[in-house]
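Researcher: Let's try something more involved. This one mixes different molecule types, so please make sure each is placed in the same coordinate frame as the others.
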Amino acid sequence: MGEFFHMGGYGAFVWPAYLLSAGVLAFMTATTLRAYNRHKRLLHHMEDGGPEN
Amino acid sequence: MFALANPHRFLSYSRVLTPWAGGLAAVLLLVGLVWGLAFAPPDYQMGDTVRIMFVHVPSAWMAMAAYTFMASASLASFIWRHSLADIAARAAAPLGLGFNFLALVTGALWGQPMWGTFWVWDARLTSFLVLFFFYIGYIALWEAIEDPHKAGRAAAILAIVGFINVPIVKFSVDWWNTLHQPASLIKMGAPAIHWTILTPLLIMVAAYTALFVALVLMRMRTEIFIRQIHRLQISTALDTEAPALG
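Model: All components are placed in one shared frame. Result:
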């Protein structure tokens, strides 16, 4: 297992590359989902309940 | 393509397609990660740093593909003045910027152990940095101009002009003597990579592409919702003001 994280001595480069990729992809997905849900809810609210207050 | 240009039809198609694209992205990402990290062999020259390729090449590919998508949609918006084309181009930009950023940083993390430097001003890296600035300029134009029609037109022109950089990025490794290695995937004849490394790479490329499709559809749907909300707000404002005017 230690060998896996060591990555033949290149762990200091391989793991940051993967962590950063995971972070940016997760961030793009989260912000997209949050904006989508917020506006979808707002639109439904305005269509069903008349003007928002 | 023109059938999809109707926002209502787009909303109903994209509602079905989005979860499928998202699910496919999740499955492919999982398979690609496990294969790439645990089962693909280290390269005989580059050792385990070759694993950086599984996140570097897909993000670089998506940065270029997203820009091509953005420029094509901008051209369509410019010619047919269709709002959905504007919406598509705008939805792709922040995603392309994210992929572009990842390609630059993972490239630097690969460059340091292999070339002995995080950055070098060679043609590939420089043209890729220029692509990054085109994304930023495009997003900034949308933010800076309040009227969405004017903003859309100005941003579309920038996206179309900036597209000239995409073939420069692609062929920079052939046209100039660069430190960056030449194309490994798309070239005439057999790919330069052994299948044990090529397969997880292709899976990751497919995963990033599916993720882009899911996110761009969702962002387009969001933008349509926002425009509908604005229309409703304007019509309610007019309704409440009308008696006062009369």
